[in-house]
Design brief:
The complex is a heterodimer of chains A (269) and B (81). Chain A has 269 residues and is mostly helical. Chain A has a domain of 51 residues. Helix content of chain A is 77%, strand content 0%. In chain A, helix 3 runs antiparallel to helix 4, helix 10 packs antiparallel against helix 11 and helix 12 packs antiparallel against helix 13. The longest helix of chain A has 25 residues. Chain A is elongated and about 85 Å long. The relative contact order of chain A is 0.05. About 2% of the residues of chain A have low confidence. Chain B is mainly α and 81 residues long. Classes of the chains: A mainly alpha (269), B mainly alpha (81). At the A-B interface, helix 3, helix 5, helix 7, helix 9 and helix 11 of A face helix 1 and helix 2 of B.
Chain lengths: 269, 81
């Protein structure tokens, strides 16, 4: 029997495929096989643009905005292809915003969106810059386009809601914050924004209810406590309003809000 | 001796100033409430994107921008302020 097993094992081993033959190797980067100066220059520019965007990204993470801006401007001068071009414009917009160059930042984000209409993060930052520049007409236009492109985006709903609220468009703000809260009823800041829209629409009872809900979710929410005091004061509930302002003054971290709440507490007496 | 009109002017001025002060207090209360409550928090800018970060849209800012979920969308949270 042993005489049979040994040759059988030998036969099996001989038939098995050699492991080294089946070893797969990852495909490497193609070796440049051109001597064409134009193509070599284009390749060099592409690699330089990628490297400069990487350097700028690292600089932005460190808060070195001037360095990042310089790298990105140089990268864009090399006219990189998509998606690197819109990415560089997006990062440049961030650096410009941090350096207080809001008009330039807006132009960079707008150009990133023009380069790639599906670049939703660029659209989001475009609206944020519009709001920083207090250009409510542009913010509304850009927020409408953002929501049209990304109708499921929570951020798009929030951005248009804030834009509408600042512009005094209570119905749109009510719609957008209502839709946002339908997804997450426990989002206290959204609940506060909805209450502001209700106050704008003179729906004070709804505003009081939503502010109380926001405060049940976040009892130390000083700004919501202040708004509740204002609603109660409007309803003639001076004692409750006074109590709300006093609590706001105790909870507020911002000195201005604390001082305002104290002043209102005295006014409510 | 003060002029005769001063005798009448003083009480009238007092009444006018009292009424004006009351309306001013009321107006400032409303205006301050409006200014304070209208300070809706604007969302922060989404963060930077690396040169290779947008491959397949697998980058944090783009994911936050597109997310349907409130908790993943990097929305403002000012409940502690």
């Amino acid at each position: 029997m042993r005489r049979l097993i040994v040759p059988a094992l030998g036969l099996l081993l001989a038939c098995a495929p050699p492991a080294a033959v089946a070893q797969p190797y990852p495909a490497g980067s193609p070796v440049p096989r051109t001597t064409d100066p134009t193509r070599l220059l284009a390749d060099a520019h592409r690699r330089e643009a990628v490297e400069r965007v990487r350097l700028a990204f690292a600089a932005e993470l460190r808060g070195e905005w001037t360095r990042a801006q310089a790298e990105l401007e140089r990268a864009l001068a090399l006219q990189p292809r998509e998606p690197l071009q819109s990415t560089a414009r997006y990062d440049l917009g961030l650096a410009q915003a941090q350096l207080g160059r809001l008009d330039d930042a807006r132009a960079s984000f707008a150009q990133a969106v023009a380069d790639d209409g599906d670049f939703i993060a660029a659209r989001v930052n475009l609206v944020a810059i519009d709001l920083m520049r207090n250009d409510l007409a542009a913010a509304r236009r850009d927020a409408d386009q953002l929501l049209a492109r990304a109708p499921d985006s929570a951020r798009a709903l929030y951005d248009r809601g804030v834009t509408a609220l600042r512009a005094g468009d209570a119905p749109t703000a009510l719609h957008d914050f209502g839709a946002l809260l339908a997804r997450d009823p426990a989002y206290a800041t959204g609940r506060y924004q909805l209450a502001l829209a209700e106050m704008k629409a003179a729906r004070y009872d709804d505003a009081e209810r939503d502010l109380r809900t926001a405060l049940a979710l976040a009892p130390a929410y000083a700004r919501a406590r202040f708004a509740l005091g204002a609603v109660l004061l409007h309803a003639g509930k001076r004692a409750e309003a006074r109590e709300s302002f006093a609590r706001c003054a105790a909870d507020a971290r911002e000195p201005a809000l604390k001082a305002l709440a104290t002043s209102f507490e005295q006014e409510a007496n | 001796m003060p002029p005769r009109w001063v005798k009448f002017a003083a009480p009238v001025a007092l009444v006018v100033l009292t009424l004006a002060g009351a309306s001013l207090a009321r107006a400032s209360l409303d205006e301050l409430a409006a200014a304070q409550t209208l300070a809706a928090p604007a969302p922060d800018l989404l963060g930077p994107i690396d040169a290779g970060g947008r491959t397949g849209w697998d980058c944090a800012p783009e994911r936050a921008a597109r997310s349907a979920r409130v908790r993943e969308a990097q929305l403002p949270d000012e409940t502690g302020r």
